[in-house]
Write a structure and sequence with these properties.
The chain has 184 residues and is α/β, with parallel strands linked by helices. The chain has one domain: 3-Layer(aba) Sandwich (Rossmann fold). The chain is 36% helix and 20% strand. It has six helices and five strands, in the order E-H-E-H-H-E-H-E-H-E-H. Strands 2-1-3-4-5 form a five-stranded parallel β-sheet, sandwiched between helices. The protein starts with 6 loop residues before the first strand and ends with a helix.
Length: 184
């Protein structure tokens, strides 16, 4: 793995603190830290105050979201500062949960600037009980691609109850396989 990555940000889009998504994203960060000299950071979107998009369309004129009194721009700054993004989210009714979708929707204000994430590389971690991976990944991947990020890989992990992934070594090991497959 190349040392061209100096900052890696793990982002959990799960509302469940300490759940399977958090565990998998943290494990990916741990493994990446072993292989690189990169600084790593972890955040949970649900721990931030991100207002839902109001549909006001003011962003189309401003070039950024009109809502300025929450944690959205701070999260955007962390994304921009990272070279590699490890994005994880559970599947909730065929897509990411509301906390992650609210964040994605708020980036609409940057839609005119398709370079928002240019040069960023990303990996996706999707967690589901049994299905829904395809539409979930379509939302996450299209969001990354629209803004210029390059997706290096993804995994689908079967797990449901909090911490269950730790009892399913065949599922938990998918993180190591993903990290081992990366050429940075």
């Amino acid at each position: 793995m190349s040392q061209l990555v100096s900052t890696i940000l793990g982002v959990s889009g799960s509302p469940r603190r300490g759940g399977n998504t958090d565990l998998l994203v943290r494990e990916a960060l741990r493994l990446l830290a072993e292989r690189t000299d990169a600084a790593t950071g972890f955040l949970r979107v649900a721990d931030l105050r991100i207002e839902a998009c109001r549909g006001c369309r003011a962003c189309m004129k401003l070039g950024h979201c009109a809502i300025q009194d929450d944690d959205f721009e701070a999260l955007m700054a962390r994304l921009r500062a990272a070279d590699l993004l490890v994005l994880g989210a559970p599947v909730y009714w065929l897509g990411p949960p509301g906390v992650m979708k609210n964040f994605i929707d708020r980036t609409h204000g940057y839609y005119r600037d398709h370079t928002l994430l240019r040069g960023k590389r990303a990996v996706l971690i999707s967690v589901a009980t049994e299905s829904g991976f395809e539409p979930h990944e379509a939302v996450m991947a299209s969001w990354l691609r629209v803004y210029g990020a390059r997706i290096l890989g993804s995994i689908r992990v079967l797990s449901c109850e909090k911490g269950e992934v730790l009892q399913r070594p065949e599922e938990f090991s998918k993180v190591r396989q993903l990290v081992d497959s990366l050429v940075l």
